[in-house]
Write a structure and sequence with these properties.
InterPro entries: DNA-bd_dom_put_sf, HTH_17, PBP_domain, SinI_DNA-bd
Pfam families: HTH_17, PBP_like
Radius of gyration: 20 Å
Protein name: DNA binding domain-containing protein
Mean pLDDT: 88
GO molecular function, one term: DNA binding
Number of helices: 11
Structural class: alpha/beta
CATH class of the largest domain: Alpha Beta
Length: 311
């Protein structure tokens, strides 16, 4: 029998922070496949992942909000801004920006490194980053300094969160450290190239002198924390790298390994002055921080702090 994981409507509602009515509407329209166990509707983890991926590439009203397409072709005086990254907190930020300004926020669900490259190419206005540099032990800034060459920018803290291993309940294989991955009987599930979780794994393998070809499952890539956790829960993999919050949603154990700083980068231009001022005010506001804290497993003690700024 297949070990594929599935969710109830209630669980998906909590995970994606949308109402059950929204999900029932998607099911009714045939956009989100379900199956029944008795009277209960359930959604396969793979079907949910496929739906999310489709929303990243298609236009229109989405479960997560609008998805960015052809933004680089918009005129410079457009009120559309592109926020890139996958965390749900970015959706909260977008709503606050729209509430306080005339901007219309568009969402791109691209990983940290690719988001930063998109910013360099003029395709994003706000990018979220959680990229670990093994040589300095620092997050984000070493990468920004190399990629945003020639651009003035500001780096603001959005939040901090725990990153580590997703493991099965009870951690039967006793996976506790990065070196534990270098064992023949342990199989991982990986994130896509350019994601912060993938960079964290690759840097730790480098620091511990472990070659990727020695890691079973290294080439098995998925595109979000939910899919990593689902692969571990269903037995497809023994371990994967992700953030704490999703482990609780899926119902698996979490081994914390590092506190990652999750930051926002914005280019400094005459056109972005108002946006930067607005984002600073939002991040420092008690209302925004309260909403973030209500999600759980986030640290807002540095939220709004200027990490680095060029002129």
């Amino acid at each position: 029998m297949s070990k594929e994981l599935s969710y109830t409507i209630e669980e998906v509602s909590q995970l994606l922070k949308v109402s059950k009515l929204t999900l029932y509407d998607l099911v009714k329209k045939g956009e989100l496949p379900v199956f029944r166990v008795g009277r209960q509707m359930r959604i396969d983890a793979k079907d949910l992942d496929n739906y999310i991926q489709n929303q990243k590439t298609n236009q229109g009203t989405k479960l997560y909000g609008p998805v960015v397409e052809q933004h680089k072709n918009e005129t410079k005086d457009s009120n559309h801004i592109v926020i890139s990254g996958q965390d749900l907190v970015l959706d909260i930020l977008g709503k606050h920006i729209e509430k306080n300004t005339s901007y219309k926020s568009l969402r791109s669900y691209t990983g940290s490194l690719n988001s930063l490259i998109s910013m360099y190419n003029g395709e994003c206005d706000i990018v979220s980053l959680h990229m670990f540099d093994g040589d300095t032990g620092e997050y984000n800034l070493p990468y920004i300094k190399k990629i945003l060459v020639g651009y003035p920018y500001i780096l603001l803290n959005l939040l901090s969160r725990k990153a580590g291993f997703y493991v099965k309940k009870g951690n039967p294989l006793n996976i506790q450290s990065w070196t534990d991955l270098n064992q023949d009987h342990i199989k991982i599930v990986n994130r896509e190239k350019g994601s912060g979780a993938r960079i964290l794994l690759d840097e730790q393998l480098r620091l511990n002198r472990i070659t990727s070809r020695d890691i079973e499952g290294y080439r098995h890539e998925v595109t979000n924390h939910l899919s990593v956790a689902s692969a571990v829960a269903s037995g497809v993999a023994d371990v994967g790298v992700g953030i704490e919050k999703v482990s609780k949603i899926v119902g698996i154990d979490f081994v914390p390994l590092i506190t990652e700083r999750y930051d926002l980068a914005i280019l400094k231009t005459p056109e972005s002055e108002r946006l930067i001022s607005t984002v600073k005010e939002i991040l420092s506001s008690p209302q925004f921080q309260s909403e973030v804290n209500s999600l759980g497993d986030y640290d807002t003690s540095q939220t709004g702090n200027i990490i680095y700024e060029t002129y």
